[in-house]
Specification:
By secondary structure, this protein is α+β, with helices and mostly antiparallel strands. The chain is 42% helix and 10% strand. The strands form two sheets. A six-stranded antiparallel beta sheet has the order 3-5-4-7-8-6. A two-stranded antiparallel sheet has the order 1-2.
Length: 242
């Protein structure tokens, strides 16, 4: 059935075939990027733009995107190297490989069409699709873009085994903004709110029940965000008249 057309409405089975993720993984992975289904299906335009940060401007580009993803292990096999060697090479500047989409631990992908183009080209050429602006940013720009302290970004990026989703192209690493925002939100819920996280209020009655969230196009409140905020507020010591 691949490649999908530009306006294909994909089921979970379709997305399993397109991405090679298991059917149980597809929904949770897309939710991390703020991607929701329309009814029971996912418009592929939505997946291309908000998961990969790519848009098709003509039928050839639509076919490239619709042809799906290729796991790094499969690509390495075709390149004649090990996965570790390939991942190391991707971080070197001016390498000849297509962009890598690292969507989580052991979820490293290329666009299958770009791998095929590179293998068929005598000069290691492939069609490079431009990334949508602000979809993925270098680590140095994340804090300012998300309007959070740099320490919060540093705390997320220090976990090398569980980094936010990122795109590695020509040796440059750019983190997918919506997934960074998702990690900020979930880490905030895990740690609980502090006085510095709560906005000031003249009467003080709502200070413990409001939580400041970074504003991004791909971020959304977690299912238990309001409950966690209320619980934090109730945990504050009662005020006295003395």
């Amino acid at each position: 059935m691949l490649p999908f057309s530009k306006f294909h409405a994909a089921t979970l089975i379709d997305l399993h075939k397109w991405s090679t993720l298991s059917r149980n993984e597809v929904g949770p992975v897309l939710a991390r990027f703020g991607i929701q289904p329309l009814g029971r299906k996912y418009p592929m335009l939505r997946v291309y733009e908000h998961l990969l940060g790519l848009s098709a401007s003509n039928p050839a580009e639509a076919d490239m995107l619709g042809a799906g993803l290729l796991r790094v292990a499969k690509a390495a096999e075709r390149f004649g190297v090990s996965s570790d060697v390939l991942l190391h090479a991707l971080r070197s500047k001016n390498n000849k490989y297509p962009p890598l989409y690292a969507l989580g631990p052991n979820r490293h992908f290329f666009l299958a069409a770009q791998v095929e183009q590179l293998l068929a080209s005598p000069r290691n050429e492939f069609y490079d699709l431009p990334l949508r602006p602000e979809h993925a940013l270098p680590a140095s720009r994340l804090a300012r873009h998300l309007k959070v302290p740099q320490t919060k970004i540093d705390a997320i990026l220090i976990e090398k085994a569980n980094l936010p989703a990122r795109i590695i192209s020509r040796g440059h690493v750019r983190f997918i903004v919506s997934d960074v925002a998702h990690k900020l939100e979930t880490s905030h819920l895990d740690e609980g709110s502090t006085a510095a996280d709560r906005p000031a209020d003249d009467k003080g009655s709502r200070a413990a029940t409001e939580v400041v969230r970074p504003s991004t196009s791909g971020a959304h409140r977690g299912l238990f965000a309001d409950t966690a905020a209320r619980a934090t507020g109730e945990a504050q010591p009662p005020r006295t008249c003395t």
